[in-house]
Amino acid sequence: MARLLEDDALGLLREAGIDVPPYETVSTPEATADAVMRLGGHAVLKALIPVGGRGKAGAVQLVEGKEEALATSRALLGKTILHYPITELLVSALVDIERELFVSFAFDSETKRPQLLFSAEGGVDIESILKENPASLIRHPISLLHGLTDLDAQRVTERGGLNGDAATNVAT
Known about the structure:
By secondary structure, this protein is an alpha+beta fold.
């Protein structure tokens, strides 16, 4: 089964009209440094590998300036993290985070259908959150005929603990 890398997912979100931070995909230290400077001199570098836990594995780094971007990208590119070689990096603008949510689309091998996974409890540390509170993860099957409807998305966000404008904004 194919997996989307983060830059692919960001592109799809942008095409769907969802705001995403400015980003670039790069494969050399020089291109990394140039991208960081185009994004204002500070950015986050993320290894483009098809696995979670990149941050804990050291494959997500904040950088400031050209020299730090060069050094960090030289350290990451060519390295193997979580059994995957790093050949490309996502260079993303920094954003102020008001609240983290977890949203993922996955394939349920039991039902042979796509599903939406959602938790209002967090994003980066979702594995730890789910160990403590597995009920915080909402699993919602997605219809192969109709896709994920706005009403489905609204219900998932509400079941996940959001309400009012927060539920509507995340759902849409």
